[in-house]
Amino acid sequence: MKHPAFDSHLRQRSKRWKLTMGILTVLIVICFLISMNSGFLHLAPLDVLKTIFGGGTDQQRVILFDLRLPRIVISVLIGAGLAVSGCIMQGISRNPLAEPGILGINAGAGLAVMIYVAFYPGESQQTAFMMPVFALGGAAITAAIIYVLAYKKNEGMSPTRLVLNGIGIASGIAALMIVLSVRVSPEEYRSVYTWLAGSISGTTWKYVISLLPWLIILLPFVFYKAKVLNVLTLGDPAARGVGAPLEKERFGLLAAAVGLAASCVAVGGGISFVGLIGPHLARRLVGPNHQQLLPTSALLGGLMVLVSDTIGRSVLSSGEVPTGIVVAIIGAPYFLYLLAKARG
Amino acid sequence: MNEVADKAEEEEQANQSLQITRRIRPVIGILVLLAGLAALILASGASIAIGTADIHVATVWQAIFHFDPHITAHQVIQEVRLPRVIAGIFVGASLAVAGALMQGMTRNPIADSGLLGLNSGAAFVLALCFAFAPNLPYLSIILYSFLGAGLGAGIVFGIGSLSRNGLTPMRLVLAGAAVSALLVALSQGIGLYYDIGQDMAFWYAGGLAGIQWTQVKALAPWILAALAGAMAISRSITVLSLGDEVSAGLGQRNGLVRAGGTLIVLVLAGAAVSAVGVVGFVGLIIPHIVRYLVGVDYRWVIPGSAVFGALLVVVADTAARMVNPPYETPMAALIAVLGVPFFLYLVRRGGRELK
Question: Which residues pair with A63 in a beta bridge?
Fold first, then answer.
């Protein structure tokens, strides 16, 4: 490993990684500023700056601090969480097309939240803290089912089965969601439907506070485990050769991925494709080492959702397009492109 | 070397199974078909009799064969229950035959119009119709539905065929999932923007409630023609299901058969979706059960799928009314409850073929 050529290759990689991270951070900051300017009520850039530094009218302060900022912050957080979650799943399943949405984890979280909203209607203000808990439960149960079913004695866990099981279960859950959606009142339906489509409108600081602990605990844990993920990606025989306790590590990482996906879905609704595309682009930019890949995915995911949310808010003159829909419109063609290009 | 040996062996097996098929399957096929038809007639009778107002079976018989417009029960049967059952039969047969054709043409055991994006394509175009032209006549809705199914299928298969190693079952299903996600997101956007979300949900829920004679009459010619077409190419599908090389070796024009089959599938899936919304898994489950019963000869698989698909939908529709009366549980959900475990079973069993 101490070969000089390899060494310089690593140094180059690391340099490139730092550059990528820097550029992404700058892009997020730029989008952050643009996003503060755009929306139903127009704020001039100068007003935004004035307001940030304590000036501005009351109305401007409300728009910026109570409406736009929490939304911008949560977009970045959700994107980061989903992208890291997808990155873990792709690593564990060794399938480059795995992500929480395709694997049915979003659907499981969505179903749990839908059941909660359907049976405790009209409490949506108090539910900011309960929704992630329910979503986590639903996602965990779904993930457990998919994982157990993909596992076969003698053969272990098959990545193909994992993905196919996820697709099957997701389409079953979609049918159950329809049952629930027909039951609720039109007003509730509208709010649930908006949520399902992946909308982060109406976000308040409460939602930020309810999501933040999950990310603060899980993201560092995952970054810390990046080396393990590198080993797992090599495949079972190689990983066993290195001496990693496979099932235990895989389980821990999967649990973290589920936790991330579930908490993000609970707040942001059914935003899919971020978990797929974030890691993919990241891999293209910085290579397969998870120590660099995971943070890059996080930034890319955050950027992607932030951009989608900003677009969703500014495209239509009246009303807005839910973020999840914008992400899907951008993300699905890219997914299909990857699929067309993939070998094997 | 190995590959050549494998291919020779495959061809050998194919020939053998064709031989066996010729000898014993017709008897079994006829028996299965007759049993299925009998069950379908019974289920249809029960479906007409069971409902919010329970009607005696004898009354059902009279209402159909000695209709008396002065009796309310006869009216209910003629105007509400009968079109519903017939629509159920049509839809079930359509979905199952579409699934059988897709599985035969792609040699993919988990092909189904729901999983491969046809249903969501039709649903997307119908969402457009709901939003921009709410008063379209039913016949044009059906035609748009065909277009939509074609759109979904076109994207999925187009992507699949662009890829380097061709259409693997895995890739087809992934493309289906992604295209469905995109089309569903677009439909959701339309639903939200025009505030027709819940209307669409009611329709997506896949129910036969409220179906009328006009709809049945508009659908019938399309579905009957497509089913006849499916029967007409059934032999070619059997040959195709043995693999492209074998099929070409036997002098069949694969492209032509695929084109015809695809057209039939689009009509069947589009018609079904325009009638009841997105009902998945019928096209997945039924052909498997039928193949298990009658073998791999599509001359038997296709009529068998039609009969048993109709049976499944009629039974599910009846059950949907009985689960939680007087409310109707969406039929699509009931079928999914059966379909998901079956799908998981297929995935678990199909080691080699699903790679």
Answer: none
A255 touches chain B (CB under 8 A): no
Which of B160, B189, B206 minimises the CB distance to A197?
B189
Rounded alpha-carbon distances, angstroms, from residue B314 to B40, B43, B88, B276, B311: 8, 7, 5, 12, 5
Contact A168 B340 (CB under 8 A): yes
Q: What is the pLDDT of residues B314-346, one digit of tens each?
A: 998 888 888 776 677 778 888 888 888 888 887
- Before B326, cis peptide (omega within 30)? yes
Residue A110's pLDDT is 81
pLDDT at position B308 over 70: yes
**pLDDT of B353 higher than 50:** no
Confidence at A294, pLDDT banded by 50, 70, 90: very high
Judged by CB atoms within 8 Å, which residues 223-242 of B form the interface with A? Answer: none
* C-beta atoms of B165 and A343 within 8 A: yes
- For the cut 50, the answer to whether the pLDDT of residue B355 exceeds it is no
**Amino acid occupying residue A175:** A
Asked if B40 reaches chain A (Cβ–Cβ under 8 Å), the answer is: no
Write out pLDDT tens, residues A142-195.
888 887 887 777 666 666 777 778 888 887 887 787 777 766 677 777 766 676
CB contact under 8 A, B186 and A328: yes
Residue A129 has pLDDT above 70, yes or no: no
Q: Are B181 and A328 an interchain contact pair (Cβ–Cβ within 8 Å)? A: yes
Q: Is the per-residue pLDDT at A344 higher than 50?
A: no
CA distance B20 to chain A (A): 33
Q: Which of A172, A181, A182 sits opposite B340 (nearest CB)?
A: A172
Cβ of A329 within 8 Å of Cβ of B185? The answer is: yes
Q: Angle CA(B112)–CA(B115)–CA(B119) in degrees, nearest 5?
A: 85
In this model, does residue B94 exceed pLDDT 90?
yes
Residue A149 and residue B186: Cβ atoms within 8 Å? no
SS3 A18: helix
Query: Of residues B22 and A305, which shows the higher confidence score?
Result: A305
User: Under an 8 A CB cutoff, do A344 and B206 touch?
Assistant: no
Judged on CB neighbours under 10 Å (0-12, 13-18, 19+), B231 is middle
Question: Are the beta carbons of A172 and B201 separated by less than 8 Å?
Answer: no
Please give the pLDDT value at position B340: 84
Place of tokens 């159950």: A176
**Residue type for B103, please?**
Q
- Report the residue from B174, B177, B348 with minimal CB separation from A161: B348
Q: How many CB pairs under 8 A join A and B?
A: 147
Give pTM, 2 decimals.
0.76
Measured N-to-C along each axis, helices A186-196 and B197-204 cross at an angle, to the nearest 10 degrees, of 80
Residues of B in contact with A191 (CB under 8 A): none
With a cut of 0.85, is the ipTM above it? Answer: no
The yes-or-no verdict on residue A90 having pLDDT over 80 is: yes
B228 and A230 Cβ atoms separated by less than 8 Å? no
Q: Is A147 on the interface with B (CB under 8 A)?
A: no
